[in-house]
Amino acid sequence: MKIGIVGLPNVGKSTLFNSITNAGAECANYPFCTIEPNVGVVPVPDERLDVLTQMYHPEKTTHAIIEFVDIAGLVKGASKGEGLGNKFLSHIREVDAIAHVVRCFEDSNIVHVDGSIAPLRDIETINLELIFSDMELVEKRLEAAKKKLKADKKYQLEIDTLEKIKKVLEEGKCARTLSLNEEEKESIKDLYLLTAKPVLYIANVSESQLENVEADSMVQRVEEYAKTENAKVIPLCVKIEEELSTLDGEDKKEMLEAIGLKESGLDKVIKTSYDLLGLMSFLTAGEPEVRAWTIKKGTKAPEAAGKIHSDIQRGFIRAEVVSYDDLVKEGSMVACKEKGLVRSEGKDYIMQDGDIVLFRFNV
Q1: Fewer C-beta neighbours within 10 Å, C or N terminus of the chain?
Q2: What pTM was computed for the model?
Q3: What residue ranges in the chain does DSSP mark as E strands?
Q4: Where are the alpha helices (DSSP H) in 150-248?
Q5: What is the pLDDT of residues 320-361, one digit of tens each?
Q6: What whole-number distance in Å separates Cα of residue 192 and Cα of residue 49?
């Protein structure tokens, strides 16, 4: 699963990417420093794995992972080929969700591509380019579907859905603001609209703003806008996150305490991105390995078993499940079994986040 980090040039995208992945992407104070997208695979922070590792002392601990892609800065006119234009748009088309970095700080030493700081204008600049690109796709598809309708009435649903989307795009809104039913979604699933992708807005603030970020007027404006799209906003200071990313253990903990934070903004970004994609983790625990396995929310037990090995899914008998909270409270699997907290679940069981599972199977 891929998250694309987007934004105007010089808003802190590549610095954020470097901080998330420690990949050392080029980061300089001029537009289009990033041309080809940098890719970094990062573990999803999960305190539950730390606790289980202390409990089982396994040979190894494996986190769930998520992929971040640092995409070149966009400028007005990209849909018509300005800046890196279509190259930028094609890179966005390949990701599953978008982390949109918005500059919410003043700094005369860092050039703004439009000459002034205005978060909503910046959001609109990017969203309009994505809307223009989507509009072109929708119009072409609509034309093709209308031609096919003469021979097959099944295209009526597709036409109706595309007309709905076109209306929303013409109003300057993103396709994700539109509620579509499952049939409608199915009819256009291969269209891969840019503005239909889920989005997380990252408000990049200064260190001084971070002290009272809830009252910051620029951040508040971004949050109000995000509500119109049912999107989330994470305010963070990319400069601080870059420093934090170089620290480990106690040093990192001390710095977080010094600035009054419980966890780094990057951890929030990674966790929220994971959630944004509709993902969750089930856990397996034992002496060989403690591991988080990534599945879509709503996944049934046999499909979850298939994540471990296709043979386990094929020969699925049952899943022995205990909740993470129960295991930690009781201190061992044996104690959980004695108290009847380990459940035997069948093929229709829908997995829950944090389920600790042992799959029984026969091939």
Answers
A1: C
A2: 0.82
A3: 2-6, 38-43, 60-62, 65-70, 97-103, 199-204, 232-236, 279-285, 289-296, 316-323, 343-345, 355-361
A4: 155-170, 182-187, 207-210, 217-227, 238-244
A5: 999 999 999 999 999 999 999 999 999 999 999 999 999 999
A6: 35
